[in-house]
Prior knowledge:
About 45% of the residues lie in helices and about 15% in strands. By secondary structure, it is of the alpha+beta class. The protein has one domain (about 10-169). Helix 1 (about 10-50) runs antiparallel to helix 4. The longest helix is centred in the first third of the chain and has 43 residues, at about 10-50. It is elongated and about 80 Å long.
Amino acid sequence: MKTIKVELTESSIDNAIDELRDYRQGLKDRLKVFVENLVTAGVQVAKLWVASGQGDGKNAFVNYLINPSGDIVKAEIFLKGKDAVFVEFGAGIHYNNGNAHPKAAEFGFGVGTYPGQTHAINPGYWWYRDDGKNLHLSLGTQATMPMYHAAETIRNNLIYEAIGTLVEG
């Protein structure tokens, strides 16, 4: 807790106002560091999970934005690429048998739920044609859940980071 002593003089009040402005800026700076630390931890975890995946889903990458605006610091971590949904929720049963994403039902995704997909829940493999009409054998894509794991990491680090940021400030 910060204590500011003020006498009822013009210079003392001006000094108190300056101290309050400095304190407010310090809070903003600590908030930005707090959010950056949480995002960094989430991004690192998400990248590890993307890299650990097996299967066809290789076109997915982790990105993030941090946007300080006034007293608010907004941040987001997101998975991009044409295979992002497959990497998060999985495709095909080969890599995902009994490994459902905990939020799949909530978001309407999961193994075999791709619109028009009729082979994703078959054991083994299937063939598909890419945009160039080339035929490919597929065992599907493992659900590595990078966004789910990033969110879990951020939630688990929230208190620890808050205490560390306040103590350092």
